[in-house]
Automatic annotation (TrEMBL):
Its main location: cytoplasm. This is DIS3-like exonuclease 1. Residues 465-819 form the RNB domain. It comes from Petromyzon marinus. The keyword Magnesium applies.
């Protein structure tokens, strides 16, 4: 039964006039309590408050608004968030905090629920005449607590938390069994040993007190932001421009950019980003905020600095003013902020010397964030002396116009700066990656597989599937030591001389039920996170490394795509999709498969453990079958690749490096460049085919809600740098279409230096847009195309063990095949698009943390080496960009990119001595269109052109508050005759290192996937053999030396 009442709201119109709004409100008696103690048979949702708790907590509005992160601690369970408190949080703190609370409510590891008290007939409180909004909210929360106690028939005490002593005096003794306590008193009495809770409370409480005192200050450091109504009107009229603020992390104090998001003819002249010069013009906006900018008059426009930066974001203003600039570009200032992007920040306390100027009585400290793009944060703490050498996590709470810096509070300690575990933890925090161990509830959902109780297939399930165990030779090709084998391949001759090609993918959805605890956790993680020395799985290990993994010699459930191909042309005759049962006969490494393909001496000594049990005759016969299958797969893949290339599929380039650990695994033995193999291309092409055909099938059956992946064409102006660099070498790059671009890159080959073509392909990556997951109902059909792969439909289907997008695609495909359209397996467009956006965001985080992890280990590798004495610190590099005072250099041996100064900050320039060794001496520097020349006072001048080779010395620049950085220093030029010799030596060393890495991987199956091969498998778009486009893209865009607007 429902009861209708009315709720009167006093709002304000866009013109500032008061408006009285009367809304109907329907009160119900059947609002669920979500408690396991309920005797009234309320509807039970996916989450229930436990029956074994000592009490339930009902936090008041102020506690929820200001102390939400304490409520997030795992010790505090049995939380009831009232609808009143949730609405107050959204209104007072905005969408970011509200979404954080929603995430907490969805977290199955946390015993907390939301109670819709404003719709419950006996919990609802109407606002009384003359009652303040704050008093009404407090009374509503208290009434909800009383309702809970009465509804559960006094089985459990209810504790209401507040920050107002008056609430304790008024309600404390009003209802037996319902206790009203100050939050601090509750923590001291119930959780005296939870140190983090007490530290957080003290930090936040002091921050709130100081924020109140700062608000009384009359001196303003920044102008006030315009009102929401004015901002929206200005955006609509094109007076203002909205976009995401992106701070240049190498000139963090001086340059930030906002990507123009207007299409109005009044702003048609804006073909570039809007420059926001200096901190004052940002007006308290932080990197990542959605801001509104106002363009300055043309006479006040600035250009971007073209010189190399120090990379530390601390360039002085005088130096910046003297630096060469580009032509003036649209320049503006921030007038408002639409949405904050504040998050957890890793920071370091200033040194003792830096704190000398602060008052001894003051507990305010300016901590230095790890990220150069984030300003110093003022926090209140008395631990600054004790935590001098530690990395800590802080949060921003506010940034008043009267304060030069934002106010925040201390959250927790990560560990001592410089230690490996601390630096890895810092990378995870900076990329908003939380990978807690799987909970007991999630692990209870997993099947049991132990020596005492081995897992076995279900007979009825096997009968429902197509059994390929005895009819097909199935094998996998993976990096050495790979545990999470998603895919396996098969090829066989069928009737009529045709071929059957099979791609068999682990059937994760058989074990991962929709909306289960494990499924919700996998959805939150969205992907497996691969770091240089470890990984964090999306699924529990019993699935990822065992029951779902297509290991050799064991029966596994799979979802297969099988094509019948013409025996001569390899054209597709028919396609079959379905659930299967398979047994992989061989688990091959890439190197082993390539050796078998190459035959001859390369195949001698190859060991295949699965053949050890057979006699010589049987072994040779089975080996011939395997070699035949590998050869036919390679032929089919070549034909597929040729057809895609004909349609405009791109082949781009990267150099990937694997970290090879020492035997004790406590140091880095080497950085191993990954060797491209044709078998990489073969496997990748088969995966691309499977993804493409599955995309076509689900898009046809679910035209408005299929999960696909699209890659929009790049903006042509982004190709200008690529065209200019190619023209400097006498090549023409046609970017009118993907096919024209592919043909141009194929023709841009210097027979004397193959690295030039590789560098041009890497530069083409910089112009590309990111490929993204999307729901087909959210984009018109003409935008479903995948530019890089030249395919009309594409998705991800082949890696469900480590990508949640693939799990969803499996569910959609199986729902189509089995004639099911249930919402839980095929969500509607809006819900699916929200999921796609979440997965896209998590994928970006995964790519970024992997890149930063490799950079961390590169720094660790060189940190303990003497750059003057160790030959490994001097390597051949190729110049790929010119700057006003130096060049950007790529070092293929280690996969490094960095700046090499030709004119340093002291004004000295590089001079070439009589022994061809470079040194810095007084002089000047001149810049031509395609070259840069030093003019030293003594010695010979040095002229550097695009794609010249330099010998560079590699060293590490250490910083106290930030990550260590690789630096390069020019030692001498490399002549054309010399260019091949160092690389030949490098190739020999790389080959030896690769062989050692393979041997190490065979011995240690716990190592994460080989980064190079994993990326070919995981993100093979744009690359038939050369690695992952998106990793290269992030690598280039994030390089400070590029001065990219997105950096």
């Amino acid at each position: 039964a429902t009861t209708r009442t009315e709720k009167v709201l006093h709002l304000r119109s866009q013109r500032g006039h008061g408006v009285r709004v009367r809304r109907e409100l329907y009160l119900r008696q059947d609002v669920a309590c979500s408690s396991a103690l309920c005797l009234a048979q309320c509807d039970r949702g996916p989450k229930l408050l436990g029956a074994n708790l000592t009490h339930y907590l009902v936090p008041g509005c102020t506690v929820v608004q200001e102390f939400l992160e304490i409520l997030e601690l795992p010790e505090l369970q049995g939380l009831v968030f009232t609808q009143t408190s949730c609405n107050a949080l959204q209104h007072a703190k905005g969408r970011r905090h509200y979404n954080r609370l929603r995430s907490l409510l969805k977290d199955m590891r946390k015993e907390c629920v939301m109670f819709a008290n404003e719709f419950q007939r006996f919990a609802y409180c109407a606002r009384e005449p003359g009652e303040t909004p704050e008093a009404w909210k407090t009374r509503s929360v208290y009434q909800a607590a009383v309702w809970y106690y009465d509804h559960l028939v006094g089985q459990i005490p209810i504790v209401m938390l507040t920050e107002d002593p008056e609430d304790v005096r008024r309600y404390g003794a009003a209802t037996p069994g319902v206790f009203v306590m100050l939050f601090l008193d509750y923590l001291q009495n119930f959780w005296p040993d939870v140190q983090m809770a007490h530290e957080l409370y003290a930090s936040i409480h002091q921050m709130l007190q100081e924020s109140k005192s700062q608000g009384l200050s009359s001196k303003r450091e920044f102008p006030e932001h315009l009102s929401q109504e004015v901002l929206e009107a200005g955006i609509k009229s094109s007076r203002y421009i909205k976009g995401i603020l992106s701070v240049n992390k190498h000139r963090a104090q001086l340059e930030a950019f906002v990507r123009c998001q207007v299409s109005d003819s009044k702003q048609a002249e804006l073909q570039s980003d809007v420059l926001v010069p200096g901190v004052k013009a940002r007006n308290r906006a932080v990197h990542g905020d959605m801001v509104v900018v106002e363009l300055l008059p043309r006479a006040e426009w600035h250009g971007r600095a073209t010189g190399l930066s120090g990379g530390d974001g601390t360039d002085e203003r005088a130096e910046e003013e003297a630096a060469p600039k580009t032509e003036p570009m649209p320049t503006g200032r921030v007038v408002g902020i639409l949405q904050r992007n504040w998050r957890d920040y890793v920071a370091t306390f200033p040194s003792v010397d830096e704190m000398m100027g602060q008052s001894a009585k003051s507990q305010k400290v300016l901590v230095v964030p790890w990220d150069f793009r984030v300003p110093k944060i003022r926090i209140s703490t008395n631990q600054s002396q004790a935590l001098q050498d530690y990395r800590v996590v802080v949060r921003i709470d506010s940034w008043e116009a009267t304060s030069q810096y934002p106010n925040g509070h201390f959250v927790r300690v990560l560990g001592r700066a410089g230690e490996l575990e601390t630096e890895v933890a810092a990378l995870l925090v900076e990329n908003a990656i939380s990978v807690l161990p799987f909970s007991e509830a999630q692990l209870r959902e997993m099947p049991v597989d132990s020596p005492e109780t081995p897992w076995r297939m279900d007979g009825e399930e096997v009968a429902r599937r197509c059994d390929l165990r005895s009819s097909h030779l199935i094998f996998s090709v993976d990096p050495p030591g790979c545990e999470d084998v998603d895919d396996a391949l098969s090829v066989k001759t069928v009737a009529g001389g045709n071929l059957e090609l099979g791609v068999h993918i682990a059937d994760v959805t058989h074990f991962l039920r929709p909306h289960s605890h494990t499924d919700l956790e996998a959805r939150v993680r969205a992907t497996t996170y691969y770091l240089a020395d470890r990984r964090f799985d999306m699924l529990p290990s019993v699935l990822s490394g065992n029951l779902c993994s297509l290991l050799g010699g064991v029966d596994r459930y799979a979802v297969s795509v099988r094509w019948e191909l013409d025996g001569d042309t390899y054209e597709v005759k028919r396609v079959w999709y379905g659930r299967t049962v398979i047994r992989s006969s061989y688990k091959l490494s890439y190197e082993t498969a390539q050796a078998l393909l190459d035959g001859g001496a390369a195949a001698q000594g190859v060991t295949i453990p699965e053949l050890d049990a057979f006699d010589d005759g049987t072994r040779q016969e089975r080996l011939r079958e395997l070699v035949w299958a590998l050869g036919r797969l390679t032929d089919v893949a070549r034909a597929m690749r040729a057809r895609r290339t004909e349609e405009g599929g791109l082949e781009l380039e990267s150099v990937e490096v694997r970290v090879q650990m020492s035997e004790s695994r406590d140091s880095i033995a080497d950085l191993v460049p990954q060797q491209p193999l044709e078998v990489h291309e073969t496997v990748a092409e088969c995966m691309i085919a499977a993804n493409h055909w599955v995309a076509r099938r689900v898009a046809q059956a679910l035209p408005g809600r299929a999960l696909l992946r699209h890659h929009p064409p790049p903006r042509h102006e982004f190709f200008e740098e690529l065209k200019a660099c190619a023209a400097a070498m006498g090549f023409h790059i046609d970017t009118s279409s993907n096919k024209a671009l592919a043909e141009s890159l194929d023709n841009a080959v210097d027979p004397n230096d193959p690295l030039i073509n590789k560098m041009l392909r890497s530069m083409a990556v910089h112009a590309m847009s990111n490929a993204l997951y999307f729901s087909t109902g959210s984009l018109p059909a003409d935008q479903h195309y995948h530019y890089g792969l030249a395919l009309d439909h594409y998705t991800h289907f082949t890696s469900p063990i480590r990508r949640y997008a693939d799990v969803m695609v499996h569910r959609q495909l199986l729902a189509v095949l089995e004639a099911k359209g249930a919402p839980e397996t095929t969500p509607l467009n809006t819900e699916l698009q929200e999921l796609c956006e979440h997965i896209n965001e998590r994928n970006r985080a995964a790519q970024q943390v992997q890149k930063e992890s490799i950079e961390l280990f590169q720094s660790l590798f060189f940190r303990d080496k003497d750059p003057e004495q160790d030959d490994r610190c001097v390597e051949d590099g190729i110049v790929y960009s010119l700057r006003a005072d130096g060049v950007l250099v790529h070092v293929p041996r280690y996969g490094l990119k960095g700046a090499a100064y030709l004119k340093n900050k002291d004004g000295l320039v590089v001079s070439v001595g009589t022994d061809d060794v470079c040194e810095f001496v007084p002089g000047c520097i001149t810049r031509g269109k395609n070259h840069i020349t030093t003019q030293p006072s003594v010695g010979r001048s040095l002229t550097v052109r695009l794609f010249d080779h330099l010998m560079v010395r590699i060293y590490v620049q250490s910083r106290r508050a930030h990550a260590d950085t690789i630096r390069l220093e020019v030692t001498r030029m490399v002549t054309r005759m010399e260019q091949h010799r160092p690389r030949d030596k490098m190739s020999e060393a790389a080959s030896a290192s690769t062989n050692a890495a393979v041997a190490e991987g065979q011995q240690d199956s716990s190592m994460p996937r080989n980064a190079r091969a994993d990326m070919v498998r995981e993100e093979s778009e744009f690359s038939q053999s050369k690695g992952c486009l998106y990793d290269i893209l992030e690598d280039i865009r994030e390089l400070a030396l590029m001065d990219a607007t997105t950096a």
